[in-house]
Amino acid sequence: MIDHLGISVSDYERAKVFYAKALAPLDYSLIMEVTEEQTGHAAAAGFGADGKPDFWIDGKGAMNKPVHVAILAKDRATVDAFYKAAMAAGGRDNGAPGIRPHYHPNYYGAFVLDPDGHNIEAVCHAPE
Q1: How far apart are CA 61 and CA 63, in angstroms?
Q2: Of 42, 81, 82, 112, most Cβ neighbours within 10 A?
Q3: C-alpha to C-alpha distance for 29 and 71, rounded to whole angstroms
Q4: Containing domain of residue 86, as a range?
Q5: What is the predicted pLDDT for the residue at 98?
Q6: pLDDT tens across 22-37, in order?
Q7: What is the CATH number of the domain that holds 15?
Q8: Domain count along the chain
């Protein structure tokens, strides 16, 4: 089980605003933020649900290659809400909400590229 993961972004403040808006439908919010003085390197923001920051961004600068992160959604409507919120927050479409039967018959996901090109997905595995 993964406890948390972090990615570097080119514009920390812009990314923090993007993720706060895009992840809100998934019940994710900014849980904690640490400063450069506290960490000894770039500031970082931890997003998560239920008080547990499990998705982190830091201001170390853009990564050489984008990453893919999938966050579990409670239902298909939440996947749709994530997609809408992420697009409104400045994300770019990388796969509108829908069934991805090549994964399995109930795989319902949506994919959005964040400002640095990271592929952020919301996915629901439940039937309708």
Answers
A1: 6
A2: 82
A3: 13
A4: 5-124
A5: 98
A6: 999 999 999 999 999 9
A7: 3.10.180.10
A8: 1
